[in-house]
Amino acid sequence: MKRFFQFVFDFLRAGFSGGVIFWGWMLLLAFFIMLWGYGEYVQLTNGMIVTGLNDQVSWGFYLANFVFMVGVAAAAVTVVFPAYVYKHKELHKIVVLGEMLAIAAVIMCLLFVTAHMGRPDRLWHIFPVIGIFNWPHAMLTWDVLVLTGYLALNIIGGFYYLYKKYTGKPVNKLFYLSIVYIAIVWALSIHTVTAFLINTMPARPMWFHSMMPIKFITTAFAAGPSLIIIVFLLVRKFTPMQIADEAFHLLSQIVVWCLGIALFLTLSEIVTELYPSTEHSLGLQYLMFGHHGLDALVPFFWTAMALMIGSFILLLIPRVRKNLLLLPFICLAVFVGIYIEKGMALMIPGVIPTPIGEFAEYFPTHIEFMIVGGVWAIGFFVLTVLIKGAVGVLLGDVRYKEQASHTVQGEQANAVAT
Amino acid sequence: MSKQNNKQNNKNSPAEDVTRRDFLRKAGTYSAASLTGAAMLLAPKPARATKNVTWAEHFQKNYRLMTDEEKKEAIDRLVKRYSEEFGKKVSVDDAPAMDGVLFGYALNIQKCIGCRRCVKACVAENNQSRGDKQQIEWIRVMRLEKGKFSEGDRDDGGYPQDFGIQVGGNAYKPAGVVLEGQHYYEADKVPEKDAFYLPMQCMQCEKPPCVKVCPVRTTYRDPDGIVVIDYNWCIGCRMCIGACPYWARRFNWGEPDLPAADMNPDTHYLGNRPRMKGVVEKCTFCIQRTRKGRWTGCVEVCPVGARKLGNLLDPESDVRKILATKKVFRLRADLNTYPKFFYFMD
Amino acid sequence: MISYRILAPVMSLCMLTAASTTTVFGETDEESKECFESRKDLTQVQQREIEPGVTNIKCSPTTGGVLFWSDPFDGTIPMGDMPVEADYSHEEAVVKPREPQIDRNKLLTICSMACHNGEYVPWPENKLARPLTMHQDIVPDAMQLKHGKQAIWCLDCHHAATRTKLIDNYGNEISFNQPQILCGKCHGQVYRSWRDGIHGKRIGMWNKGGKKRWWVCTECHNPHDVQQGERNSGFAQLDPEPAPILPKGMINANHERGHGEDH
């Protein structure tokens, strides 16, 4: 037990150590986290009236970010899957970093959901035993299950591996690998269920199609690895951790193919909806072209399209794809493009028009921006700490020593012996 | 005014003082603000409706799972709190569904003149939030325009001529009736010549999608067919708002604005009792009235008698007679929600 | 002809009385609020306090329409001998008397006592339609009767001698409080529908056996202008209640007014 506490302590110490850039970065994040605290305070005291939401558009910026982040969380599987199923050596070395990313992303998801709730003080109503958990009827309870399960799997899997590495003990393969394989399937489930959450509502025709889960997964597997590439490049730049080019090449291939499929699915959706142009396509029409002067989303949609198509074409060129100086910028474009397309450009036109045909535009307020920005800051904060700690453990800098003095003596003894 | 009186009373009569202290000790006054910690002490003036919410109320069970005693306690708490807050004697009913009753509603779409009086009557009866900041109306009347028959309405040029051999470029634009309804129509007088009107509210579906998606089962269908909400159990996730195909549910985005003078003191726990911020509400067929045998506010107010409510299990009820003799339809029947709200015409 | 000359002073007296009563009843108390139920000006209710803080009705502040009846049976009388053949016949059915509404200035009562009592003004020998020669101002819509497409006229419905009554096919008097007996003579289908509770309006208790206040024909329809102009809806036009407040983020609702143009 003492060993475990020592691990937590050493891990956090490694996570919170760094130079000027590190502390500058953390301070910047802390600033945004403070804004988050203020935003949450205002929203809790006044109610959700401080947001731009209303009865017509009752799901907005928070859920858009939630859906996107579920995808990012699920995308950790793009590192885990090749590492374990295809025994990809380079990815295998860094698989824990993917798991750390998943942990940070799920934490963000939970914070976004809490921000979306009108009565977060009643969250306990959903807990089984003390509350009522409407399972299996309510899709939201499935989402709660898969998300918390995924968080648990990643914490257990990732930290079990790190802990073993830290103590220098061998990993129990049966235990560890079963966690890994369950997590791989589970990752798909979190995004599938999140898609089911919104596509099982015929009241919202823009979401009501069976293409939703696969579209979610492909966009997630394009945006997620894009972020992972950026994070890994930063890790390679700022830490002594070695990550081979090969790992980036595989990830960028995943990005390009998943992006291609995602674009294909978007195209299919547009043709299917706009060719007959029924009333059910009004949401998509509003998104793409606006509606009698209401066109807040139009520039966002076309920006997202330009970013996605442009980066897809660029990534198709092997020379560009393998250029690790250019790659992070393309990845950023993919990430931003999908963030728009799958965030606001999916959530908002899904609820506009209302089921009885009313059009109302939605503009997030500064409180919403504070909270969303703050949750992102929390995510990056957690991610930074987790990755720094994990890299420390992986590199062997952070490892268990029976007792500081003892180890020193041992080292001296070693030195003497040599 | 009444609050000042209360204070004076407390000072003057020791008996009341004792009960008040007792009350404080037992329950501890609780404000939603205290939840978020000491910083909340700086909160701007606490909103009225949650000011006196007690811990006991906050931690009460879901209404459906309460025993009779617990229900009584919960209701006594509410009666006390509401009466203090609104300065009048408020009653909170807990009448259960009557045996052998299944409520059905029929609306004569041919008669509706679009005067929106049902909308306002509903607000007066059901204690919704009103005012400029947050207006909640459970009924929405849509105006559907007829027309576009003249030569001038021909679709000359533009899309069909360029592309459509079949269309031929001379199609009449929305011939007959336009597709989209107008929600914010303003007219000097109704009914207007070239329009008809379609009121919508909760359809009290037999297979309500909103109930299915509720993660905490705070909304459910009672045996008399009314879909109700335990406002004290709602977590405000708004899944039900997303799932409702009739856009019947509303959310209390902020603290409801309900002037004490306009408050209707005859309330039901599952119906028109004052709500708090952050919870969903909707039409309950005026459960506080209908479970006592009285017609709903909208049925009574309709100046043209277009609205009918009755017992679907009673063949002699007006709604059953309408179903038997008139042409009826339900909105979005393709979704298999089985609404108990029928539209008919003569 | 001779008798007419003799009657002239009597008639002028009659008119005077009418005029004076008009002014007397025209003065309304500023404090009390008057609202209408269904037909504006012909279904008026006075707002008053029935218990401390509770009024008999709540009215719309914008249109003056009644929104809410604290007591749905306030001011009602038994419906009487309406031949209710439905199974609901055992229910207690009440109506609000129409006479005070129609005869708010007591013109009808006074005139029919003073002049039209069957003695001074002779009623026509036959029922051939002819234009009204007098009192065009006090009988609204009399000159443009829009009912029955010229096939009926005043005395098909109004009692020729007893002007405070309506009349049935056998010459029996019908009270203004029970116009359904008269209207049902021609509009049998609507009458049956009304009797079943499908047509028209009732308030009170929905349940079987519960007391109900029935709205009678003239509470919603104007018998002298049943078509109501071009709309042909059967109802006079009313002021609508205000539109809902626009959702946050919206400045106007112009987008829904231009619909159908750019699709």
Commentary on this structure:
The complex is a heterotrimer of chains A (418), B (346) and C (263). By secondary structure, chain A is mainly α. Helices cover 72% and strands 0% of the residues of chain A. In chain A, α1 (2-15) crosses α15, α3 packs across α8 and α3 (61-74) crosses α14. Chain B has helices spanning 2-12, 14-27, 48-51, 55-58, 68-86, 117-126, 159-163, 209-213, 239-243, 287-290, 297-301, 318-325; strands at residues 91-93, 103-108, 140-147, 176-177, 195-200, 219-221, 227-229, 250-251, 266-268, 280-281, 307-311, 327-329, 341-345. The longest helix of chain B is centred in the first third of the chain and has 19 residues, at 68-86. Chain C has 263 residues and is an alpha+beta fold. Chain C contains eight helices and twelve strands. In chain C, a hairpin with a 7-residue loop joins β1 and β2. Mean pLDDT of chain C is 78; it is low at 1-30 and 259-263. The interface between B and C is large, with 62 and 54 residues.
The most extensive interface, with participating residues per chain, is: B-C, 62 and 54 residues
Sketch the major β-sheet of chain C. 4 strands, mixed
Global structural class of chain A: mainly alpha
Structural classification of chain C: alpha+beta
Mean pLDDT of chain C: 78
Strand content of chain C: 5-15%
N-end to C-end Cα span of chain C:
73 Å
- Order of strands in the sheet with most strands of chain C: 7-8-12-11
H/E order of the elements of chain A?
HHHHHHHHHHHHHHHH
**What share of the residues of chain A does DSSP label as strand, in percent?**
under 5%
Question: Share of helix among residues of chain A?
Answer: over 70%
Question: DSSP helix count of chain C?
Answer: 8
Shape of chain A: globular
The succession of helices and strands of chain C, N to C, reads HEEEEEEEEHHHEEHHEEHH
Rg calc of chain C: 22 Å
The dominant shape of chain C is: globular
Major sheet of chain A: size, sense and barrel closure? none
Q: Give the helix proportion of chain C (percent range).
A: 10-25%
Question: What attributes does this structure have?
Answer:
heterotrimer; A: 418 residues; mainly alpha; 72% helix; 0% strand; globular; B: 346 residues; alpha+beta; four-stranded mixed β-sheet; three-stranded antiparallel β-sheet; 12 helices; disordered N terminus
